[in-house]
Amino acid sequence: MKALVISPQPFFSFRGTPFSVYYRTLVTARMGVKVDLLTYGEGEDVDIPGVRIIRIPRLPGCHRIKVGPSLLKAFLDVFMIAWTVALLLRSRYDLVHAHEEAVFWARSLKPLFRFKLIYDMHSSLPQQLTNFHFTRSKLLIGLFAWLEKSVLRVSDAVIAICPDLYDQALKNGVEPKRALLIENSLFEPVRLKRSRKGGLADDLETVRPPSGPRIVYAGTFEPYQGVDLLIRGFAEARQRRPDLELVLVGGTPDQIRDMKKLADECEVDGSCLFVGQVSRETAAKWLASANAVASPRLHGTNTPLKLYELLAAKKPIIATNIWSHTQVLSPEVCFLVEPTPESMADGIVAAVSELERARMVTSAARRLYEEKYSPEIYQERMRRLLDVVMPTPCAE
Predict the structure, then answer these.
(1) How far apart are CA 164 and CA 85, in angstroms?
(2) Contact at 8 Å (CB) between 27 and 58?
(3) Residue 62 neighbours by CB distance under 10 Å
(4) What does the radius of gyration of the chain's CA atoms come to, in whole angstroms?
(5) Exposed, middle or buried by CB within 10 Å (0-12, 13-18, 19+), for 317?
(6) pLDDT tens, 188-246?
(7) Given this model, what pLDDT does residue 112 score?
């Protein structure tokens, strides 16, 4: 069996967080499928046996591609479409596994080349337009909503990464046998073909020992992530626990500058450490040094990819009580707080002070991960996916 995976994002850059693409491709190749992966020119090559990485040209000025929709991505996708057609003309692919907006052009090419189509639904694409403040145009958002419904109906299988997207797929006409809920719950180390040079502060020795109870946030600094809420809540928590410290991993230089300004206004700049963008291995080191970890997201319906790693990390989780989190989390496995500075402060203080409760929720979180999101469960769901689109058994 031969598959074409289309990933319109930097693969692999760590800034673009294409971890779900990496793990989907890794597991698919392990099941005996020969994979060609088409992606942007930006990024680092990774070592995945059985996978050939094909890139569009790395064009001058087209680098540092941000997460979410952008005019730059739309420009690069023109080249992605051309390369997709060229590959389909040269090779016979049994299936095409399209991530995010790649499904739009894959859907148009499906009748011509007669491949099976898998839509990897990482998010609601019309919702992305508003979440990332790309547009307020009702016409454009409506067009994306229509396109999304169209591709859901014609795809041979749809992967939803969280229950909300799974329900959305069913509501839009996907039969249950074609819809698979496969959460992005793997986080084994990514094997790069060569070491990165510059751009990421990934020296493992930079992980400092804590000077007091440490709260760690690791992720992007996009507005919906609630980093400002976390800083404001941390400032209130420091009034009760002056020994607290906050480590923030991620963010662009401009975003870090803005959050440092906020920390200064809240008079906690001396207790906030901004690490910047680091490799996943280094981020894991910072998380391991924490007394508690935070996910302060403000809104959204997709479950954060990092949440599964936090469940397995054996650290108390402080998370906002929004649907994005509560699809997976409950008060039994974390410290749920309302998205206000006062409630965030209560959660931070409780996570580092109520030690018996912290131990109980941490143990329950780890059990939840092992029972519902373990690597074995992930691999079994990927096997079911291939059985749906290509009933002939795959070689192990």
Answers:
(1) 33
(2) no
(3) 17
(4) 21
(5) buried
(6) 777 777 654 444 444 444 788 898 999 999 999 989 999 999 999 999 999 999 999 99
(7) 96
Burial of 189 (0-12, 13-18, 19+ CB in 10 A): exposed
User: CA angle 271-221-59, nearest 5°?
Assistant: 130
Structure tokens at 155: 């795809």
Strand partners, 181: 160
Query: Does the global pTM surpass 0.85?
Result: no
The ranges of the chain with pLDDT < 50 are 196-205, 393-396
Q: Are 389 and 33 in contact (CB under 8 A)?
A: no
Tokens 């059990």 correspond to 367
Q: Please report which residue ranges of the chain form alpha helices under DSSP H.
A: 19-30, 71-90, 102-113, 125-131, 138-154, 163-171, 227-240, 253-265, 280-288, 306-312, 323-326, 341-353, 355-372, 375-389
**CA 25, chain centre distance (Å):** 15
Of the candidates 63, 81, 60, the one whose C-alpha atom is nearest the C-alpha of residue 8 is 81
CA dist list (Å): 338 to 113, 220, 325, 344: 50, 20, 12, 7
Contact present, 294 and 335 (Cβ < 8 Å): no
> What residues does 137 pair with on adjacent strands?
none
As given in the structure block, the two tokens for residue 341 are 């500075």
Q: Which tokens hold the place of 54?
A: 């094909």
